[in-house]
Write a structure and sequence with these properties.
There is one protein chain. The chain is α/β, with parallel strands linked by helices. The protein has 2 domains: 293 residues, Rossmann fold (3-Layer(aba) Sandwich), CATH 3.40.50; 155 residues, 3-Layer(aba) Sandwich (Rossmann fold), CATH 3.40.50. The protein is built from 20 helices and 16 strands. The strands form 4 sheets. A 7-stranded parallel β-sheet has the order 12-11-10-13-14-15-16. A 5-stranded parallel β-sheet has the order 2-3-1-4-7, sandwiched between helices. Helix 20 links the parallel strand 14 and strand 15. The N terminus is likely disordered. The structure holds zinc ion. Zinc ion binds next to helix 3. The site of zinc ion has 7 residues, from helix 3.
């Protein structure tokens, strides 16, 4: 089975010289609420594979909180995990748990640049080597106790996969994606955790903006694994539930595992299992692995997600939405080739974005967001001139009145223009990088209940811009290019420099 192992990673395996080679890890990458537990349970049915849930959080979910294992026993009472603790550390009691928690917190943060950008050779956080050794022993023990060749881990967060590779563990990534509207709908629900052994709790929740931004970030980091040399296969949740035999067949081939006939027959009937599993964290579905599970798509969001939230999520996640073959229209039906080319008249159902900015640097920065607005129906409001015309060739432009600095008559004219343009174009979103011309448009959008996104400019770090300060309280989403800009805009989201 070793033939499927990706190329050797740079780091040396941390195991003792006599130890068997570490198991391969099939790492389910992406973001939560995308069906990773379901995919993990399905992959766990393949011969020579074992599904163990989200091992990244074993220290908290298992050892500290003693949550229920997928087998129904509390973590500390589960035979499988007890045997893993014995094999890895001579018993969990001999592991310095505080140190493990500290290392996990210090090293495996989702945004850790030295881990995410291995080619830049940035200094790793202190403790990275110790944490890698800990993970090496843990996964080695999971391999030994389960006897499996492939450990299916649904941890999803890309930094964990990088750490495993650096620990000398061969990693293959299965990037699982789902329609972001379905993901966002799931994150907004209140879900009771059924796996607690000491009182009940609830799963985390996110609103549409937070969910949309996280969807972009976590999936981008998952995609990046391939660029860092990890073998990667992308699977859509919708395809998995629509045709499980075919999807699982592709993943099994990718992992070089056989898909046995009885499993194929079961998948073709849309059923899975039963197969008891020992999983440390994940969707509550994992507690039902001892029963047969019906593979059915969860499409509740199509009716349940309010229109405004759907527009917000569609707008934020558009670059990936199109790439993964989900449509930006209100039906949200999956299908490739949704992207359109140049400007077109307003398309019924398409997300409409009104880009408002001054000419010059503000316009250049808004142009840099082309991967995002390029797929939408859009209209521009900016200052006319030769430079604008050349930069916005082929785009639809409404000329704004200028100059705007300390110019009350032009502010009034632009206010009237905002009412006229917004009422006739009826955008779903108004987006701006400033300057002065943005404010009347944001004000009118606010009054009419239209969502607004403001991007603070690249070159102002020492103090906030006047327009930024004016638009901040009425923006639905306020984006920053530098961490330092958060001093003035506390609920701002840092997206990094666009230039
Ligand atoms: Zn168990």
């Amino acid at each position: 089975m070793s033939a499927a192992a990706p190329e050797a990673s740079a780091a040396q395996p941390p195991q003792a010289p006599h130890a068997a080679p570490p198991p391969r890890v099939a790492f389910i990458a992406g973001w939560g609420r995308s069906g990773s537990t379901l995919l993990g349970l399905a992959l766990g049915q393949l011969p020579r594979a074992v599904f163990v849930g989200e091992v990244r959080d074993i220290w908290t979910r298992g050892l500290v909180e003693n949550r229920l294992c997928g087998c129904g026993q509390a973590f500390w009472s589960c035979e499988f995990w007890t045997a893993v603790g014995d094999a890895a550390f001579g018993g969990w009691g001999r592991l310095d748990l505080d140190r493990a928690l500290r290392l996990r917190g210090a090293v495996d943060r989702p945004w850790n640049q030295p881990l995410l950008r291995p080619r830049r050779r940035l200094p790793l956080p202190p403790g990275a080597g110790q944490y890698r050794r800990l993970l090496g022993r843990l996964y080695q023990a999971i391999g030994e106790v389960s006897g499996a060749d492939v450990v299916v881990d649904s941890s999803k967060i890309a930094t964990h996969a990088h750490l495993l590779r650096q620990a000398g563990i061969p990693v293959q990534a299965v990037h699982l994606v789902r329609d972001p509207r379905g993901v966002a709908y799931s994150w907004r629900k209140t879900v009771l955790r059924p796996d607690g052994t000491a009182g009940q709790g609830y799963l985390a929740r996110y609103g549409p903006v937070a969910a949309g931004l996280r969807y972009l970030a976590y999936n981008a980091m998952a995609e990046d694994l391939a660029r860092c040399g990890v073998e990667e296969l992308t699977v859509r949740y919708e395809d998995l539930v629509a045709d499980p035999a075919r999807s699982l067949g592709e993943v099994a081939a990718f992992l070089q595992l056989a898909l046995q006939d009885d499993l194929l027959v079961s998948l073709a009937r849309g059923r899975l299992g039963p197969k008891p599993t020992h999983t440390v964290d994940g969707n509550p579905l994992r507690l039902r692995a001892h029963q047969a599970i019906t593979l059915a798509g969860d499409e509740e969001w199509r009716k349940g997600l309010p229109k405004r939230e759907r527009i917000t999520v569609t707008g934020i996640t558009f670059p990936l939405l199109a790439r993964y073959g989900y449509r930006g229209d209100s039906q949200g039906a999956a299908g490739r080739g949704a992207a359109s080319g140049g400007p077109a008249p307003a398309t019924a159902g398409a997300t409409r974005v009104l880009n408002v900015c001054s000419s010059g640097g503000h316009l250049v920065q808004l142009l840099k967001l082309r991967p995002w607005w390029g797929e939408m129906d859009r209209l521009w409001v900016t200052f006319p001139g030769a430079a604008t015309e050349s930069l916005l060739q082929g785009e639809r432009i409404v000329p704004a009145h200028h100059p705007t600095t300390r110019n009350i008559p032009n502010a009034i004219r632009n206010g009237l223009l905002a009412v006229k343009v917004i009422r006739s174009y009826r955008p779903d979103l108004v987006v701006s990088t400033g300057a002065g011309v943005a404010f009347p448009f944001f004000l009118v959008a606010k009054v009419l209940g239209i969502r607004t996104i403001y991007l603070e400019v690249y070159d102002r770090i020492e103090r906030p811009t006047v327009t930024g300060r004016l638009c901040y309280p009425i923006s639905d989403l306020f984006l920053l290019q530098w961490e330092e800009q958060r001093r003035y805009y506390r609920r701002g989201q840092v997206i990094g420099a666009v230039l």
